Amino acid sequence: MLPVSAEVKTSPVQKANFCSRLFVWWLNPLFKIGHKRKLEPDDMYSVLPEDRSQHLGEELQGYWDQELKRAQKDAQEPSLMKAVIKCYWKSYLIWGMFTFLEEGTRVVQPIFLGKMISYVENYDPNDSAALHEAYGYAAGLSTCVLVWAVLHHLCFYHMQHVGMRLRVAVCHMIYRKALRLSSSAMGKTTTGQIVNLLSNDVNRFDQVTMFLHYLWVGPLQAVAVTTLLWMEIGISCLAGMAVLIILLLLQSCFGKLFSSLRSKTTALTEKRIRTMSEVITGIRTIKVNAWEKSFINHITRLRSKEISKILKSSYLRGMNLASFFAVSKIMIFVTFITNELLDNRISASQVFVVVTLFEALRFSSTLYFPMAVQKVSEAVVSIRRIKNFLLLDEITQCYPLLPSDGKKIVDVQAFTASWEKASETPTLQGLSFTVRPGEMLAVVGPVGAGKSSLLNALLGELSPSQGQVSMHGRIAYVSQQPWVFPGTVKSNILFGKKYKEDRYEGVIRACALEEDLQLLEEGDLTEIGDGGTPLSEGQKARVSLARAMYQDADIYLLDDPLSSVDAIVSRHLFEQCIRHGLKKKITILVTHQLQYLKDASQILILKNGKMVKRGTYSEFLKSGIDIFSLFEKGNKQSEPSSALGTPTMISESLGPSLQSPRPSLKGAAPEDQDPENIQVTLPLEDRLEGKVGFKTYKNYFTAGAGWSVILFIILINIAAQVSYVLQDWWLAYWANVQSDLYFGGFVKEDEDAVFILNWYLGVYSGLTVSTILFGITRSLLIFYVLVNSSQTLHRKMLETILRAPVLFFNRNPIGRILNRFSKDIGHMDDLLPVIFQDFIQTFLLVIGMVGVMVAAIPWIAIPVIPLGIIFFVLRWFFLRTSRDVKRLECTTRSPVFSHLASSLRGLWTIRAYKAEKSFQELFDAYQDLHSEAWFLLLTTTRWLAVYLDVTCAIFVTVVAFGALILVATLDLGQVGLVLSLTLTLTGMFQWCIRQSAEVENMMISVERGIEYTNLEKEASWEYEYRPPPSWPDEGWIYFINVNFRYSLDGPLVLKELEASIDTGEKCGIVGRTGAGKSSLIAALFRLSEPKGGVFIDGIWTTNIGLHDLRKKMSVAPQEPVLFIGTLRKNLDPFNEYLEEELWNVLEEVQLKEAIKALPSEMNTELAESGLNLSVGQRQLVCLARAILRKNQILILDKATSNVDPRTGELIQKKIHEKFADCTVLTITHRLSTVIDCEQILVLDSGRQKEYTRPYDLLQNTDSLFYKMVQKLGKAEASALTEMAKQVHSERK
User: Fold this and answer.
1) Which of 66, 263, 911, 1183 has the largest CB neighbor count within 10 A?
2) How far apart are CA 397 and CA 470, in angstroms?
3) Residues 6+ apart with CB under 8 A from 1046
4) What is the predicted pLDDT for the residue at 401?
């Protein structure tokens, strides 16, 4: 799916004439298509030019910038509200006037009605003048209804349109701001929070604009109605209005309560979604550690807190809806009782005028006005949150690109800086150096020395407290944890540059990507998913290096690009890319590969942010300083996982946050200059087809309550409706009695008359009270059941998601899974119960009213039947298209979030390449795509509503004229009743049909949720057969003919593997990048089921539950995953170990000093995904976590790849001492770490090539292992051979 291009269908609205716009005829072709087949994204019309995200965003941004200037000048806090009002007040005010006009027509209707009824009351067959007058009134009535029908929907549609434009503009601003956040600001916010602003907060704008005008139209209309009532029945009308005022006051209290509940709920929702996003990104870690149950419990606890708040606000909403149901009845009742007590006479025409006037108030004052109060209070909260985000610090671009004289240079003088303003020890202190074109500066130092921080300082991400940096030239940057954005491999490398074949081929060769691209089915057009799948870590590292090379910049900042590839590739990259490809450039290389230092022009050694030594390699040798003594010898290397890279964090906030000794970086890429390179985005997710089935409804309701409760609700609904309808019916009889009294048919003082009147009033009061009681009970019950359903569904979805195999997470981008947990669950919590309740209420009202009308005047059935048929045909025709539009709207929303998340991860790279503009354009393209669907959603609902109301207007005309024609046969009460009901029915009937369509659209969220409760599951966590608690006590592992693939249709990544690892053996596993080393671990842990067998201590791994298997092996992964919380909680999530044990293990992984230096030691709060630790330190924390479990089998999957060689070796030594009797599997690229292992397993493209002792492999000059060692260079190779020999002789 391409970002919007010119040849997309232009919207027919632009060419439509006045009538077509008024009655939405221009949509008919779309409905025809939707009727024939499922709508596709290509069927949508392109966005109107004035609705383009870029145009809207820049317009509002202009007003916001003015507001910021004004606030600065007056030393006040800027107000986003003012900027929004300045931007939109003109267009919005015009529609306000129309709303006023439209509500005006509602007030006039009862007057015409009254005149018609008084004609019936004083009916005289011979008076033709009166008859013509009555026809005039009937015509007036019909016209009013028609004008109202057209105006009402026109206003609503245009007000929603303003809401949409406001939402799009604010989203544009939020994204623009996210691209400019400074590092300190990133610490104050999280991806979860920004996603929440984009998914929940901005939606308030869509809702608030619909109702805002009713804040002034409602009260004005109430005043007009009161005046008319006063003219009809005098002072007793005030009693009825008093009821309304009391109710509105009550509702404004509700509004206050509501907004406080809202902000509490939002905080809880945010926490749940943040945890959810961490779970999804860290799913591999959770699975291999068998932590699913505890995470389910943790999220369920958060969810129940959230639900308790949601229930409270739902009850408030329920009361609101119940009052809407009953308020007009209470007002009418109070008015007539007062009238009775004041002994005023009243005629039938007056009775019905009063009834219809009160009904006219029903929507605007009792539904829209409280809605407006509630939505405004919610919107104010949201605007405040968005404003706080927009006021966060921005990064200051401090360096000019090129000096006037065209000299390219990097010059750093006495540079000091720290991530935390507050910290006493700066991150970097007193650094000075100069690098000119053609020179390479190598930066080395132990873990956490400040190497990455130095590059950040050069990028301008870390501003100096002293000293200065001058960078002259265009910058290219490769981050330590490689980052790719969703798209093709090719678009990741071109990164918006024009495609030049020879240059591109050269870069591919230099970055050793040729073989890898041949292995991928689609070559360089392979789609990369949300976390870089299907590329392995090493491939991602090389793609991001290729991107930098292709840019042809002047200054290259490379943050340890060689650590995730094997020795052979590493040598190739260094020779071809760094030495040859960049020989005329300024290169600053951070590395742990000490064997390359002799090629550097200068070497800078950092420790704790200070410069230990700077000079050339020969100077170091002359002065007798041995570089290696600073860390000890060893080539630091690592390797990626073989097939599917683990999904990276969606919620990687960038840059450091609290107490950062050093931040980590991730990079992403933009598209500019050449649009052809960026056409790719992930395909939209599958949408379900057809109507929402009965089964979905059944599952939804029964999730919340048993059948008995559901039956009870049905009965209560019927009871409420019956009492409601009887009240109308009774009123007609009472009107007849009143009319007789009025015209002196009988006298009030008669005992009979008194008895009859009291009896009438008594029954009337009883009916009113029961209407209120039943209405409230049923409202609260329905809300209780539906919110419960939402909770149950969420729990089921959560359990299913955590039981899904890892493959599911590789295939679905995080944005898509989160969309179901944030957006769809949000719909089930907030919108669905309200709409459902509203629909049930109006549906029963309509049925009741039609029943009463037909009972009163049977011939009404003649127009009612075709009316019903037309309505249902319209609804059926509409839903076929509308369902697809709604589903499209859901699926086009995901890319907006995925793009935001991916840009946040790659923020530093985007800025280094100056690609913000093109990324913003891509975001706007996604927004426009979503706007296309949203615009259709607005217009299709309006299409339905207009046709329904026009049909209703025709119905009113038929009934009005029919009643006048047949006047001689009718009784007074019946005419009044039927006419007043017909008027009420106009708004009601179409509202009912629209709500039913809306319910079905909303049920799509439920359907999407239920779909996630039926995912395929991995094997069960525990079987009936449990292994003995001491298992595996020896730890011998036997692979028998193992074949392994990640998915049923995927390629084999392990082929016929046979190997036996004895008790307590230390086995090294090596091979080039992508050889299947990490897949071996995946097979061992059954992340996908292997063919063949794995036998551990006499038990087949497939015969026991996954938890029983996974708990008994510890693994330290290559991609460190940490969760938000304290460091202690990350080491020991379930408090199983003593403080002392934790300190011991930290000492073993050489982290004790670093942790002691933190302000609150082990209780330091980690930022999102552990960003206040360096990448190396995070790896060590994960390693400590694995060691703590003291299992018989320990697996190190490149666990020290981002750690300097010295630390790596110390750790390896410690592990060998501590785990002397355990089986240890070490996967590595740093051959020195496995040379002292008993056995070495060499893998190549998924096959086992060699498996024996290292010394024997080195004796055989044809072996792959021998060749790998020779690639390291002579000195290193002979040292390794010597070591192997020594170990061999010791073991003899």
Assistant:
1) 1183
2) 12
3) 643, 644, 806, 807, 810, 1053, 1079, 1082, 1088
4) 57
Helix (H, G, I), strand (E, B) or coil at 918: helix
Whole-model pTM? 0.78
On whether the CB atoms of residues 941 and 882 are closer than 8 A, the answer is yes
- Residue type for 86, please? K
- The token pair at 763 is 């029954």
Instruction: State mean pLDDT over 1199-1223.
Output: 80
Taking a C-beta distance cutoff of 8 angstroms, is the pair 99, 213 a contact? yes
CA distance 447 to 565: 19
Residue type, 349: S
What digits encode the pLDDT tens for the residues 1071-1105?
A: 877 788 888 888 888 888 888 888 888 888 888 88
pLDDT digits (tens, 9 = 90+) for 704-728: 888 899 999 999 989 988 888 888 7
CA-nearest of 1231, 1245, 1258 to 1070 is 1231
Q: Is 1069 helix (H, G, I), strand (E, B) or coil?
A: strand
Q: Return the residue matching tokens 């007036």.
A: 140
| Residue 753 confidence (pLDDT) above 50 | yes
Rounded Cα distance, 191 and 651, in Å: 5
* Residue tagged 């309808």 (tokens): 725
Under the banding of pLDDT at 50, 70 and 90, the label for residue 859 is confident
Q: Are 673 and 550 in contact (CB under 8 A)?
A: no
Q: Please write the tens of the pLDDT for every residue from 1269-1292.
A: 887 778 778 888 888 888 888 877
Which position has the token pair 């209804």? 145
Cα separation, 433 vs 431, whole angstroms: 7
Residue showing tokens 């405040």: 384
* H or E element that contains 441: strand 440-444
Output helix, strand, coil percentages for the chain, rounded to the nearest 5.
65, 10, 25
Percentage of the chain exceeding pLDDT 90: 16
Letter for the amino acid at 265? Answer: T
Which pLDDT band, with edges at 50, 70 and 90, does 316 fall under?
Answer: confident
294: amino acid identity, one letter: S
**Tokens 């949201």 belong to residue:** 382
Cα distance between residue 161 and residue 829, in whole Å: 25
Backbone angles phi, psi at 1041, to 5 degrees: 50, 55
